[in-house]
Amino acid sequence: MSETLRNNETAHRKIWPFEEAAKVAQRLAASGKDHALFETGYGPSGLPHIGTFGEVARTSWVRHAFGVLTGLPSRLIAFSDDMDGLRKVPDNVPNRDLLTPHLGKPLTRIPDPFGSHESFGAHNNARLRSFLDSFGFEYEFASSTEYYAAGRFDAALIRVLECYDEVMAVILPTLGPDRRATYSPILPLHPRTGRVMQVPMESRDPAAGTVVWCDPDSGEAFETSVKGGGCKLQWKADWAMRWYALGVDYEMSGKDLIDSVRLSGRICRILGSTPPDGFTYELFLDEQAQKISKSKGNGLSVEEWLRYAPAESLSQFMFNAPQRAKRLYFDVIPRATDEYLANAARLAAQPAAEQPLNAAWHIHAGRLPNHGGSPVSFGMLLNLASVVKADTPAILWGFIRRYSPDATPETMPFLDRLVDHAIAYYRDFVRPEKRYRHPTDLERSALADLAETLKGMDRCADAEAIQTVVYEVGKRHPFPELRAWFGCLYQVLLGQQEGPRFGGFIALYGVGETVALIEAALARPADAP
Predict the structure, then answer these.
(1) Range of 60's domain?
(2) How far apart are the two ends of the chain, measured CA to CA in Å?
(3) Exposed (0-12), middle (13-18) or buried (19+): which is 351, by Cβ within 10 Å?
(4) pLDDT one-digit tens code per residue, 457-479
(5) Which of 331, 352, 370 is the last residue of a domain?
């Protein structure tokens, strides 16, 4: 398959992971390297979040496309800046008083407030790895503390000392006057307190690999080696140094880091290498199109998404138009789920050369999904759950088996997951928002007509035949447009503003049951809520 796809000239031009992979391929062709290094960074002072998932997933798709396009090997490093000093005590941890005396120390030298690991950094690193592993990402974990301590950055740190004045000339104009007075890209660790010191350097000796600095409290001078974990770098310089030291070829970043990427790229060139190719993705917005903020709590967590839909739907959401700002809130979950279902179903029928144009191909790393799919959409399941007031999977499975006799939880495990998600979504979002309205005289006449027409239909009629009947009934009545007829069906019968393809819903719910639903709506007293 890979040879077929590599020979397809259009595959990488029509979908963004291949466009990005082509950039990396061109980079390697120019450099002579025979493998590519992808990187994604993580600040371990907090816990993994939906942005972490998005960045690793998107980078993984580019990496896979690169392998298909070139046949060359690659690696993905998930780099944790766990040597960073703790600036403030997080609000979402236990035993917060345990952390207060350790402010300013590297996260890997601070006690774990959860009591499960040797340090706070180790705890959060474990959470990151567990998070990434739960989605099946292929990556190599890298710890800043371990890399510094093992000397893997020693040569690059000496290079920073050699280029110190040039690096400062790039960074200082971006800082305010107070910060400029004390800034240094090199942060020594205090030999007594263990804190990461943000102080100016009194002198530097590249040959010896040392810096001299003063404790601002005591005035005492210290000479510290930059090697072996005695120092670390400020994050923008650290980012550039890492690119230089490791030979990173590709790294994504959010729109909020555009200026930082540009600055770190300049530093990387000063050190003597070409910064990696990259991709700037847009940030998410909330339901009101406001920027998502952790402090405001207006975001949507991975755990919340996965309560209401499978991980594949989150991947679909992340795959779509990453350079466009998108609203991230609960209402997007059903749409993303059904888009994934449609792509997964389409993938099996596509020729191999066309499959890379399908998001599901990327989500499943070029393989066909083997989860059985679903004969009904997630939106349809939600509407069914709403009408039958489903509290247990057995209720929905009863209707599903009648609609699709071969469907079972064993043969269609993905559908089985969808059933559970549909019940949770209905319970938390649909049920509280249901608002039935009473039909107008025109609508009442059309609904009665639909009920009588359905009574005369074969109870085994398929969705398309039923949909045709629904259209014909609507056309027989003087609605200004058919959209008004379907709006009536959704609002009067389902208690919601929008709904599924109604013929498909009737086929799933049942012709007789739909007739009873219509008759109950027509019999509803005018003063009923």
Answers:
(1) 2-172+234-284
(2) 59
(3) exposed
(4) 887 889 999 999 999 999 999 99
(5) 370
Q: Could you give the 3-state DSSP secondary structure of residue 143?
A: strand
Could you tell me the two tokens for 488?
């009536």
Q: Which residues pair with 291 in a beta bridge?
A: 285
- Is 435 exposed, middle or buried, given 0-12, 13-18 or 19+ CB atoms closer than 10 A? exposed
Structural domain total, the chain = 3
Estimate to the nearest angstrom the gap between the alpha carbon of 282 and the chain centroid: 12
The domain that holds 40 is classified in CATH as 3.40.50.620
Same-domain pairing of 247 and 348: no
pLDDT digits (tens, 9 = 90+) for 71-101: 999 999 999 999 999 988 888 889 989 999 9
DSSP 45: T
Residue whose C-alpha is closest to residue 37's, from 26, 18, 24, 56: 24
Contact yes or no for 386/430 (Cβ under 8 A)? yes
Please, are residues 187 and 196 in contact by the beta-carbon 8 Å criterion?
A: yes
Q: Is residue 15 part of a domain?
A: yes
Tell me, yes or no, whether 24 lies in a domain: yes
Asked if residue 218 belongs to a domain, the reply is no
Report field, pTM of the whole predicted structure over 0.85:
yes
Joined together, the tokens standing for residue 79 give 């780099």
Low-confidence ranges of the chain (pLDDT < 50): 1-2, 4-5, 9, 295
Q: Residue 135 falls within a domain, yes or no?
A: yes
